[in-house]
Amino acid sequence: MDNNNLTFFDAKVRIDDLKAQIVHHNEAYYKNDAPEISDFEYDELFRELVRLEAQFPEFATADSPTKKVGGGVNKSLKELKHKYRLYSLDNSNNYEDLRKWYSRTKKEYENEPDLELVTELKIDGLACALSYEKGILTLGATRGDGVVGENITENLKNVKGIPHKLPEPIDIEVRGEVYMPVSSFERLNSEQEETGGKVFANPRNAAAGSLRQLDASITAKRDLHFFAYAAIYNGENAPKTHFELLALLKRLGFNTNENSVLVRGIEPVIQACENWREKRFNLDYATDGMVVKVNEISKQNELGFTARAPKWATAFKFPPEEVWTKLLDVELSVGKTGAVTPVAILTPVRLAGTTVKRASLHNFDEIERLKVNIGNSVLIKKAAEIIPKVIKKKEEEDFGVYLAPKYCPCCNSELIKPEGEINLYCPNKKGCSAQIKGKIEYWASKEAMDIDGIGGALIDQLYQNGLVEDYSDLYKLTKEDLMSLELIQEKSANNLLSEIEKSKTPTMTKFLTALSIKHVGKETADLIAQNFGSLEAVLSATKEDLTKIDGIGEIVANAVVEFFKDEENKQILEKLKNFGVNPLGSSVEKVSDVLSGKTIVITGTLSQPRNYFEDIIKSHGGKTSGSVSKKTSYVLSGENPGSKFDKARELGVIIIDENEFNKIISDGNI
User: Fold this and answer.
1) Residues taking part in catalysis
2) Please, which residues have CB within 8 angstroms of residue 355's CB and are 6 or more apart in sequence?
3) According to DSSP H, which parts of 175-266 are helical?
4) Which among 178-192, 306-320, 345-359, 558-572 has the top mean pLDDT?
5) Neighbours of 154 (CB within 10 A)
6) Quick check: 556 and 524 in contact, CB under 8 A?
7) Where do the domains of the chain lie, and which CATH numbers do they carry?
8) Residue 78's closest CA among 159, 174, 179, 155?
9) Tens-place pLDDT, residues 235-256
């Protein structure tokens, strides 16, 4: 984005927007191990924020992501405050910026020859800190936000390359990266697919997910490794250079990366980056760049740190990879709502550290835009470095355009294309097995009813054996039914039945989400649940009732009304009721009607997480919404509010701060 001509007001809006985006993507990457954009795209957002804060320093607040490290702590794990703070790294994606970093660093030592630097491969894994007392591993934690991490000591004891006892009885804190070899990652995903377990997006996510298991025995089954790359050690004969420190770590029994090299000056660093740009894909671990460090530890101490990163080190990030391959076939996938999605079947090719055989073509309008067909050479890249997608074909090749199907690939029903939509749909909801199984799998998913242990492979068996015809049939399953299936023993059957039983009293939001109503995801389900409170009220709601809700338009309202008018859906709901499935109005206990009839939008940073205030609003009879409109009663604003704040001012919506909000709650006066 061009920031050169931004007005003062526009700059604040853009800075707030960038902060919100970066905080969101930090949470997706660090807490959920589920990045939504590529590292390259994230770095572009981050660099833009850095530039704008330098240009408009009055908006550079202390809580900006540019002043912080990493993501935070998964609340299901115990927190651990680090003895020594862990920092992140500034980075660049071009050699000009790398030379600028060196010039700034060298300026401090103008009368000396070129600085000694150490180049290392940047391992794409999970950063951890290990504490040893008298040579014994006592604590291990993730980086977290640099100050507080997650205590995963027992899990780290199952990682190869982490010694439990050192050959010398010393006190030392070791930093490094836990990673999963690419070969192990591909093997794990194959096993997960076969058993219906979670398939990981890339080796980094697999390592993070495996390391954060609450059960250390699961971590032990995963092939995790550790590269040590730094340490804090103040004992006798402590190393005077980083390169000597790496040698000490190796002597103590840690795995250190053999490709770390000592050079002088920045040009050999740039040459190393060039050498590894392609060669890295021959390695059995994922690396997304190079790290450069000043070698002398005394100089590191002199140069110091910014709020989030050392001045004596930086990273060079390799550009996102794109590769050519051949489109062998187009596979048609039918989803839970009947949407037919084209998937490219490719000649297997290595892309960003993994073997890619399939890629997204999104929809048939996209195929028309790309002008692709079976036989074309296509360029693929990874969106968010996770999902491979086709981005173009070789222009000189003309094989025509792959034609959209007329009939469902699963049940052969004639496909329809609703007005105003880009997807083709199979209308055969009752007889299309792909839709039926998709709905059952979504019903059991974490976002919906959260029935642990029910995945695609199990659902296939249940359906093929005639044990389920829709998701309500899960509640009539017996132990004998489950034990008649492959790989299900008595203990597994009992666990599954227990999970199914637990799911009988979901919140209204989870229940409505689980129904797979077209256009209704979790947020929309929550809006409906807040406004109607009971399933009976939702069932009798008209289109006009629904469109009165701030955030729900005619398309969604029509979909909801049509869903509950459908005879088959009515039968399923009746079966669920007979099986004892009883959605609760809310998971939040109501304590007053102070906010009854009021809709509140939250923006900015408050003293507690957003869901804390959402629960308070609901407990006092109010409703929350994600967008500001004329129907909004109040906007609760914290520090660094975003575009919602500006929209509220534009529409004349009352804006209150946290103190005013608390006063309304405590006094009972609006």
Assistant:
1) 122
2) 186, 348, 349
3) 182-195, 203-211, 216-221, 242-251
4) 558-572
5) 14
6) yes
7) 8-67 (1.10.287.610), 80-317 (3.30.470.30), 322-424 (2.40.50.140), 433-502 (1.10.150.20), 508-578 (1.10.150.20), 599-667 (3.40.50.10190)
8) 155
9) 888 999 999 999 999 999 999 9
